[in-house]
Amino acid sequence: MKIFSAQQIYDADKFTIEKQQISSDVLMEQAATKLFEWIHARLRGTKVQIQLFCGIGNNGGDGMVLARLLHEHGYTIKVHVVNYSDKRSKDFLLNLERLKEVKVWPDFINEDSDLPEISPNDIVVDAIFGIGLNRPPDGWVGNLIQHINASQAFVLSVDVPSGLPMDRSPWNPVHVIEASYVLSFQVPKLVFFLPETGVYVNEWELLDIGLDTEILDRTDATYQLVGRQEILPLYRPRLKFSHKGTYGHSMIIGGSYGKIGAVQLASNACLTTGSGLVTVFVPECGYQSLQSAIPEVMVLTDEDERNISKITLPFVPDVIGIGMGIGTEEKTAKAFGNLLKEMKAPMVIDADGLNILAKNPKMLKDIPKNSILTPHPKELERLLGKWNDDFDKLEKAKAFALQHDVVLVIKGAHTIILYGDKGFVNTTGNPGMATAGSGDVLTGMITGMVAQGYEPLHAAIFGVYLHGLAGDICASQQGYEAVKASEICKMIGRGFMEILSPPEVEDREKG
Ligand SMILES: NC(=O)C1=CN([C@@H]2O[C@H](COP(=O)(O)OP(=O)(O)OC[C@H]3O[C@@H](n4cnc5c(N)ncnc54)[C@H](OP(=O)(O)O)[C@@H]3O)[C@@H](O)[C@H]2O)[C@H](O)CC1
Ligand SMILES: [K+]
Predict the structure, then answer these.
(1) In degrees rounded to 5, what are phi and psi of residue 80?
(2) Over the stretch 226-250, which tens digit does the pLDDT of each residue have?
(3) Measured from the CA of 10, which atom of ligand 1 is nearest?
(4) Is 509 within a domain?
(5) Does this complex have an ipTM over 0.85?
């Protein structure tokens, strides 16, 4: 699903109004009716007080229409206009009048007003600012936002949490609504998925407000949200007349004394994801444990007992996954550097492999084209240097991926895969997966997908989705805390099955 910028949303708005020959207030009515229907379906007339805080632009206009619809259906409401500017929008004014016509009189909150009382049992509708926010809210508006956040009431934000800009981090982190739920119009917004801004969005859901499908289809979005719909077409079915050679020979290189488990997890995941053959290359000390832990995996060893010091490959693997538990010793870095020069096929590079690259930037030019790098935020910072905010991070990361012709997988609550000038935002996974070895499993999985012939970008997108899904299945069975990397690995098969035939009620794309 495409993620639009604010400008693209305004363009789609304008196009819809012109093509469907409707006036803008009709579109607003449509949007707010969807809001009302959502609320009404859940509350069914419950006698709870709903306090609506409405700005003076179109986000506030949506709030005005919603207030009228709630009033007409017998709900107890209080409407506050947050009077932060004299530049009231046309459709806000129109709907303010319509609200008065049904005898609802909003109170106007200005700089000098007392803050209204909000009970924890109230429902707050937040329609102060939408996607039009373009500068810091005034101090008094920020205070009102803090007051709402402190109320403990359920806060339902219209379109976006007020105070959250669409293209940067907030100016003041406490002057943003902490939404319990966001009902967002038509398309997801990138800020919902980034660590600094996603924290204001507890849960979100999209409402189809009827923007014209022609413009939605033809708009080229930089970022896409990846759900099952996007994953299914990438799947490469196993063929009846195939053999293990059809699905590639992967090589997993890593480990050092005390960190052989990382290689075990990665190679097991690689195999479980479907790689035809898997050979690992580890320091001598890893031989026994690997041979006895995973009989399906072949083991080659370095001449060094404790660290990788010289990588010699008796065959040319289809893909190499490298870096887990490998350490950053000089001899290891040198062996890795030589391998980079030798290999033509894409590699999947993780953990200390990335740290070695960060310490030796000259090696970057030797990374085989289309390789996949899987940094967590700290490793990414070592590669890119510091960034100002999440948006700056994405720009720097995109430039890095373009410059080195690699697929960059930025791991996080919503892992983002960057390639060329495009980004893919993952929707699966859960906090239980922040656990030792989870990244090793991912590296093995992506390696296994490349081995089977998935293009590197597709291998990364699919692998990340499947990894999150396997983790979600684990968490649904035993809770977040007990999720372990080896358990994620065990659920890879179930993950595939869920992608191919989903459970009846599917809501994985919700926040
Ligand atoms: N297609 C859709 O998705 C539809 C969305 N709708 C709703 O419309 C809003 C966007 O409405 P808009 O009027 O453009 O913007 P806001 O309501 O967010 O803000 C109103 C104006 O406030 C000014 N502004 C910006 N920042 C500040 C600030 N910090 N302090 C004071 N004022 C500020 C700005 O105007 P300026 O000219 O002063 O810069 C804003 O324009 C969208 O989110 C949806 O809720 C439609 O209802 C239906 C279609
Ligand atoms: K809002």
Answers:
(1) -115, 130
(2) 999 999 999 999 988 888 778 999 9
(3) 1
(4) no
(5) yes
